[in-house]
Structures are given as C-alpha cells and as structure tokens.
Design brief:
Organism: Alcanivorax dieselolei (strain DSM 16502 / CGMCC 1.3690 / MCCC 1A00001 / B-5) (Alloalcanivorax dieselolei)
Order of helices and strands: EEEHEEEEEEEEEE
Pfam family, one: Zn_Ribbon_YjdM
Helix content: under 10%
Number of domains: 2
InterPro entries: YjdM, YjdM_C, YjdM_N
CATH superfamily of the largest domain: SH3 Domains
Family: Belongs to the YjdM family.
CATH topology of the largest domain: SH3 type barrels
Protein name: Protein YjdM
Strand content: 25-35%
Distance between the termini: 44 Å
Strand order of the largest sheet: 1-2-3
CATH architecture of the largest domain: Roll
Radius of gyration: 21 Å
Largest sheet: 3 strands, antiparallel
Shape: elongated
Number of strands: 13
C-alpha cells in the first residue's frame, strides 16, 4: 500500500516523489508536502483543543505566578486581542493592571 498523498488538484492516487516535491502524472501538478504539514503543526490550540488565532479573546484557567514579581494573574482574567508567536510561550498579550506578557496556550481557553 502506498503512503503517498493523493493529488490535491485532481484527486489522482498515482502520485510520485521527485526530490522534495510530489508530482501527479495525470494533471502534472507539483506540490511540496512539507508546507502542508508545517501548517498543521503551527496551529496553536488552547487548553480545550480549540484553535486560536490572532486577535482572539481568551480567559486564564489557572492562577499564574509572574516570574520576578509577587503579582499573580488570577483565574478568569480575560485577555483581549492576543497575538500568536513562535516559541514555548506562544501567546503575546497585554493584561490590564499587569502589562505586556507572554503566556502558554495550555493555560488559556477561548471565549
């Protein structure tokens, strides 16, 4: 059984690899499968598995201690207009009363 994907253009199952690309012999369409898998991996999900996007509003689901400070981000804190970034802390935001901060997506849920 072949593990190669079907052609996204015409649906043909007779695709083959040519270097880093896949080629369809029926419609001559070429595509790079790495970009498709990178899109799936780059999706950021909240604690419930919902996909997050730039500009979403989220709620903190756990008390979060702020490193180097005695402040705490309390459960239920609403964070508006988030921005997604690469890295371990993949949400960049401003929290009222605290300021600019980076959060992990596993500690928030989409509103």
């Amino acid at each position: 059984m072949s593990t190669l994907p079907s052609c996204p253009q015409c649906g043909s199952e007779y695709t083959y690899e040519d270097g880093a690309f896949f080629v369809c012999p029926e419609c001559a369409y070429e595509w790079n499968n790495e970009s498709e898998s990178a899109d799936v991996e780059s999706m950021v999900r909240d604690a419930n598995g919902t996909v997050l996007e730039d500009g979403d509003t989220v709620t903190v689901i756990k008390d979060l201690k702020i490193k180097g400070s005695s402040s705490v981000v309390k459960v239920g804190t609403k964070v508006k207009n988030i921005r997604l970034v690469d890295g371990d802390h993949n949400i960049d935001c401003k929290i009222d009363g605290i300021g600019a901060m980076k959060l992990k997506s596993g500690f928030v849920k989409k509103v």
